[in-house]
Amino acid sequence: MNNDIKFKNLNDLYNRILPALRSKTKEIKKEGLKYIHEEDIWNFLKKYKWTSSRDLDLGSMVNDIFDVNILELDNFVRDEIKHYRRKIDKEEI
Questions:
Q1: Which of 66, 61, 77 is nearest to 27 (CA)?
Q2: Predicted model pTM
Q3: What whole-number distance in Å separates Cα of residue 27 and Cα of residue 50?
Q4: Angle, CA 29 vertex, CA 73 and CA 48 arms, to 5°
Q5: Which residues contact 36 (CB under 8 A, 6 or more apart)?
Q6: What pLDDT, on the 0 to 100 scale, is given for residue 82?
């Protein structure tokens, strides 16, 4: 019997691990990093940890979330923020 959980798409997977992401975000906010959100943790791990992993399972992903290096995550988020540009809304009122 195969006990592996299969997901239809990344959105299903994201929703499945969202409780772990929320828990970690809450912990990070208590450390004073109020600008880090669930999607930042997801994007960081997806880009730097999970893309190079083989046979990744749900348990490993949750462990990665709770073990994420906060300093590296903070640097990632700050770098992402640098690329964000606000636009002036010039449409009629």
A1: 66
A2: 0.82
A3: 22
A4: 15
A5: 25, 28, 29, 73, 74, 77
A6: 85
